[in-house]
Amino acid sequence: MTAPHGNPAAGMAYQVPVGQAAGMGVSLTETAGRIRATIERVIEGKPESVRLAVVVLLAEGHLLVEDVPGVGKTMLSKALARSVDCTVRRIQFTPDLLPSDITGVSIYNQERRDFEFKPGAIFANVVIGDEINRASPKTQSALLECMEENQVTVDGVTYELAAPFMVVATQNPVEMEGTYPLPEAQRDRFMARISMGYPHGAAELAMIDSHGGASPLDFLEPATDGATVVKLIEIVRAVHVSPAVKQYTVDLVGATRTSTELRLGASPRATLHLIRAARASAALDGRDFVLPDDIQALAMPVLAHRMLTTAEAQIARRSSAAIVRDIVRSVPLPGR
User: Fold this and answer.
1) Rounded-to-integer distance, Cα 224 and Cα 221, Å
2) What burial class does residue 10 get, using C-beta atoms within 10 Å of its C-beta: 0-12 exposed, 13-18 middle, 19+ buried?
3) Is there a contact between 65 and 190 (Cβ–Cβ < 8 Å)?
4) Do the bridges between strand 224-225 and strand 84-85 make them parallel or antiparallel, or are there none, so unpaired?
5) Considering Cα of 244, then 246, then 252, then 258, what sign does the dihedral take?
6) 146-179 per-position pLDDT tens digit
């Protein structure tokens, strides 16, 4: 296998021994390519956001889409859900939404003279949580167990969630009246955060034609099914991460905990999410080993939303994303 930039020896130190990750190849790259192509029929001019969404899907993570209104947050969520032939549920988060609406509730059945569990909206392969910060913290906390352990506990009984399982949540960071900021425990459970941004002129012009008459979502056909996604996830798990790359990842995340501009650095869960996302990114590129480049490319979307900046950094208008970029530049690469 040839390393990036045309240098066959550049990735030799990070490669897996021959035969250890057999099975990864055209099936994953072709299937993932079809998923991306399907989503890009709806999302114009945002290939990076689409790729990251697919990376999170294959890395068994959850995605937070955060941006101003009207830039396609919900559209990306729906397109990702419809690109895979599996069960999809949408939850519109509102202040009166109850935890039982998400997890489910036990109802007494008069005929059977027993309690019967009615599953909530979380029992699906892909769950779209629209405007997640408009629900109360009590309702938001109903997602904590689901997102971390892929299970739901109601009245002392635990119910497993079917694989694959992914939560795609959206929120508007500008209009804060009547909203409840996500607690740090909730934000830490999202593997990555995407900020869509405004499309460039050509993409917005093409959007007028594709979205002007009817929604392209109505004509979207699934590119694969849930069972195939589960197999791709197993392939991603087998992607090799060398000891040098593991140590580099630990050093990178550890640097966020000692930064003078951050009062809360990244958690050990962030380290695991970064490694898992890097495995998926390497697999999308057709590699069976992770490079430090994969870690660097994913550091900002995986780490930045977990940080809390100090008062001094806020006064200096230093965002957590800018601080993460500086940390990536300062931490030496393996072997240097």
Assistant:
1) 9
2) middle
3) no
4) parallel
5) negative
6) 999 999 998 888 999 999 999 999 998 776 666 8
Q: Which residues are paired to 88 by β-bridges?
A: 126
| Residue 135 burial by Cβ neighbours in a 10 Å radius (0-12, 13-18, 19+) | buried
Question: 19 pLDDT exceeds 70?
Answer: no
How far separated are the first and last CA of the chain, in Å rounded? 24
Alpha helices in the chain (DSSP H): 26-40, 47-58, 73-82, 99-103, 137-140, 142-149, 184-187, 201-212, 226-237, 243-258, 268-284, 292-303, 311-315, 320-330
Q: Which residues contact 70 (CB under 8 A, 6 or more apart)?
A: none
List the CATH code of the domain at 239-336: 1.10.8.80
- Give the phi and the psi of residue 97 in degrees, each rounded to 5: -70, 135
d(CA 158, CA 224): 30
- Strand bridging mode 151-154 / 126-130: unpaired
Confirm whether pTM is higher than 0.85: yes
Residue-wise pLDDT for 52-74, tens only, equals: 999 999 999 999 998 888 778 88
* Distance of alpha carbon 189 from the chain centroid: 9
Question: What letter would DSSP give residue 16?
Answer: P
The token pair that represents 267 in the structure block: 């958690």
